[in-house]
Amino acid sequence: MIEILIEHVPSTLLHLLTGAAIMYIFYGSPWLTSSDRLKIMAFGAIVLVPDIPKLFGNYIFHTLLTMPFIAAALAAVVRPALGGGFPKAWAAAFVTLGAGSMLIDFLGNGTQLLYPVATKNFSYPLLTQEWWVIVPLLCILGILIIRGRKNVSPRQP
User: Fold this and answer.
1) CA 51 – CA 32 distance, rounded (Å)
2) Sequence-separated contacts (24+) of 132-136 with Cβ below 8 Å
3) How far does CA 142 lie from the centroid of its chain?
4) What is the DSSP string of 102-114?
5) Residue 50 DSSP SS3
């Protein structure tokens, strides 16, 4: 069991960092404090939601067919926490799930894009070594957090 967890650390870390970057793209701003930036990036953890049932052998959430509905449910949590309207929260959740979960799996070990309609595993394995993506993403996100404003009042141009 420990062996399986260790093998999945790079993949899970890549999912989380990708989710954090996508959420920052939607909600980030140069005027945010470091703690606000970290809060936004923490919501990138929603990228793991489709994988939870997958651990138990159920792929129903890990498919393009259910992703819009999962994004809508997650948008109901994201919107009150991060602000903006429901369409923005839904788009942020949908892109985070699509790119951070489905695309990463597609480029790695594969995914069943249209489950349960089709059980074919689609894969285009470019990410055999995740570290070449993890390290730059970690550096970029770290810099974004550190460079957060110390005060909350924006400067006037």
Assistant:
1) 31
2) 133/14, 134/10, 134/13, 134/14, 134/17
3) 16
4) IIHHHHTT-B-TT
5) coil
pLDDT in tens, the chain (157 residues): 355 545 677 778 888 999 999 999 999 888 888 889 999 999 999 998 887 777 676 667 777 788 899 999 999 999 999 988 999 999 999 999 988 888 777 776 767 766 666 666 666 666 667 767 778 888 888 888 887 766 555 554 4
Nearest Cα neighbor of 112 from 69, 52, 70, 50 is 50
Residue 150's Cβ-count burial label (10 Å; 0-12, 13-18, 19+) is exposed
Residue 47 to residues 16, 51, 148: CA-CA distances in angstroms? 7, 8, 24
HSE, CB side, 13 Å, CA atoms: give it for residue 22.
27
Which residue is associated with the tokens 């489950």? 115
Report d(CA 81, CA 93) in Å as an integer: 13
Contacts of 6 (CB under 8 A, 6+ apart): none
